[in-house]
Design goal:
alpha+beta; 7-stranded mixed beta sheet; 5-stranded mixed beta sheet
Length: 307
C-alpha cells in the first residue's frame, strides 16, 4: 500500500514575513492520518484552525492567502510546495502571525525543516486526485494570453513557460518541465527564489507590502540587470520558481495529483481558478489509492531523497 506521510517529530523556524515584515515563528507538528495540512493561528486569543482547500483561498494578489473563522494566513505557497515535493500529507502548522516567514525566498529552508524532522509513513492509504479529462482556464488574447491546464497523466509532471520582456529574465531559460518520477524536487526546484523588480518593490512598499523583502530573500532586478551579488542559483531560476509556486498553489486542493500541469504566464490567481474549475467538473477526476505500490507511478513509493 502506498501510505500517507507525516513528520516524525516537530520542528520550528523563525523569520519575517515578505510583505508584512513581521517577526513570525512557525512550528510544524505531526498529524494523524486523513488530517490533511492545517494552519493554526496560535497568536489569537482563541487559536483558529485553517485547513487547506482550494475554496479556502481568499486572496491571490502577490501570494496565496487562506482564511477561515475570521483568521487568515498568507504567502503559504512555498511551504505548501515543499510539502508537495516531499509528499507530506498530514501536518499542523502553528503560526504566530498572519504570514508564513519568507526565509531565503525559496522552498529550500522548508525542505530542510521537513527532512530534519523526519518523514514517517502512516497506516492509511495515500489518496490521489486522478485527472480523467483535461481542464483549462485561459485569459487574454494573442501575446498576452495566460493559461493553465490539467490533463490525465500517470504520474505528476509540470511544465511552465514565462514571458517577462526583461533583459535579465530573457537571458535565462524560459520553459521548464519537471517530472516527479524522474527529477529531484530538492535539487531541481526547491532552491529557486522568488523575484521582483525595484520599480515594483518601491510601489509595493508605498502600499505597505514587501516590507520584509530584500536581497537576502529574493532576486531583485532593476530595469536591466540582477542586483544580487551572487547571481542565480539555476540558469533558469525564474521559471523554476514559477514551477515551485504552482506546486504549492495546486497542493492547496488537499491531495496530491496524478496529472500533467502545463501553463503559460500563470500565477497564483489562475492556479486557484484552475482548481475551482476542476471542482466544478466532478466528471473530470476521481480519487484513487494504490494497494500495490508497484502499480503507482515510478518512484512515488520512495521517500524524497535527501540533499
Amino acid at each position: 500500500m502506498l501510505k500517507q506521510r507525516t513528520l516524525k517529530s516537530l520542528t520550528r523556524a523563525v523569520g519575517v514575513g515578505l510583505h508584512s515584515g513581521q517577526r513570525v515563528e512557525i512550528t510544524l507538528r505531526p498529524a494523524q492520518p486523513d488530517t490533511g495540512i492545517v494552519f493554526r493561528r496560535v497568536d489569537l486569543p482563541e487559536p483558529v484552525e485553517i485547513p487547506i482547500s482550494a475554496l479556502a483561498v481568499t486572496d491571490t494578489r502577490l501570494a496565496s492567502t487562506i482564511s477561515a473563522g475570521g483568521a487568515k494566513v498568507f504567502t503559504v505557497e512555498h511551504l505548501m510546495s515543499a510539502c508537495a515535493g516531499l509528499g507530506v500529507d498530514n501536518l499542523y502548522v502553528d503560526i504566530t502571525a498572519e504570514e508564513v516567514p519568507i526565509l531565503d525566498g525559496s522552498a529550500a529552508s522548508f525542505v530542510f525543516l521537513l527532512q530534519t524532522a523526519g518523514i514517517e509513513l502512516q497506516n492509511a492509504p495515500r489518496r490521489f486526485i486522478r485527472l480523467l479529462k483535461p481542464v483549462e482556464v485561459r485569459e487574454g488574447e494573442g501575446a498576452n494570453t495566460k493559461w493553465a491546464r490539467l490533463e490525465p497523466f500517470h504520474g505528476y509532471k509540470l511544465s511552465f513557460e514565462i514571458d517577462f520582456d526583461h533583459p535579465a529574465v530573457d537571458a535565462t531559460g524560459q520553459r521548464v518541465v519537471f517530472d516527479m518520477s524522474v527529477d529531484s524536487y530538492s535539487k531541481d526546484i526547491a532552491r529557486a527564489r522568488t523575484f521582483g523588480f525595484t520599480k515594483d518593490v518601491e510601489m509595493m512598499r508605498a502600499n505597505g507590502l514587501a516590507l520584509g523583502g530584500g536581497l537576502d530573500n529574493a532576486i531583485v532586478m532593476d530595469d536591466y540587470k540582477i542586483l544580487n551579488a551572487e547571481g542565480l542559483r539555476y540558469d533558469d531560476e525564474f521559471v523554476k520558481h514559477k514551477i515551485l509556486d504552482a506546486m504549492g498553489d495546486l497542493y492547496l486542493i488537499g491531495k496530491p495529483f496524478l496529472a500533467s500541469y502545463s501553463a503559460r504566464r500563470s500565477g497564483h490567481a489562475m492556479n486557484n481558478l484552475l482548481l475551482r474549475e476542476l471542482l466544478n467538473h466532478p466528471d473530470a477526476w476521481d480519487v484513487v489509492t494504490f494497494s500495490d505500490e508497484k502499480l503507482a507511478p515510478k518512484n512515488f513509493a520512495q521517500l524524497a531523497r535527501a540533499w
